[in-house]
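[Meeting: bench + compute handoff]

Bench side (C.D.) handed over the final construct sequence. Compute side (W.E.) agreed to return the predicted structure before the next meeting so the bench team could plan truncations. Sequence as handed over:
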Amino acid sequence: MSEQKIIFFDIDGTLLDHNKNLPASAKAAVLELKQRGHEVAIATGRAPFMFEELREELDIDSYVSFNGQYVVLRGEVIHTHPLNPTRLQALTEMALQNNHAMVYLSSDDMKTTVPNDDFVETSMKTLKLKLSPGHDPLYHQGRDIYQALLMCQAHEEVLYESVCDAFQFIRWHPNSMDVIPAGGSKAAGIAKIIDKLGIAPEHQYAFGDALNDLEMLQMIPNSIAMGNAMPEAKAAAKFVTTSVDEDGIRHGLQMMGLL
């Protein structure tokens, strides 16, 4: 096994603060990690086109996106796991019957089934992206869709229990859930990178804060939850650092002896 160390970072609430800004201390810490020869990667629920500028700013070319469904190592795609198209069509029809909009995400774009939907606008607004999904209800046909967003509230999730064998639903906003393949997770995507690099378990680190980080925080031996993390994430992690607004990344790296 390799003696090299690898550190995976979630984006929202971990690298980026609640205003979607990258704290100066976090940027300096990540760049210092790279200068010391460590492997640095991102593990996020976002699509690749949603964090391209962040990758450029931090000089990171390895990432796990779509909660593990699209994995890139040093600029090369090494793993893809799109949603089953037949079951996605069934989910689309169910959402239509329930008057719920969906957003389809490919590796390079996103489209919504309903134009000017309030739930789409309010949930996507929190990501503070420079782009918004256009309207194309047939975008999922004939192309790989790695993740979908289903616009519904928590009490409405029961309407989709019949497709739970094909999909996993992860709530990230009061009005929206991520839809990924059943069994998919950041942990599964991370395993693809670790297997390629052959990095020993004791040299694996990960930072996260939310529900889609649970499997990653449980799997990685040296996992760190942010001080602002959800209680479930703190319980899953081995260590807890300060919040993203309190230099949490630098503090956590120093706590682990990496800086």
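W.E. noted at the follow-up: The longest strand covers residues 167-173. C.D. will use this when planning the next construct.
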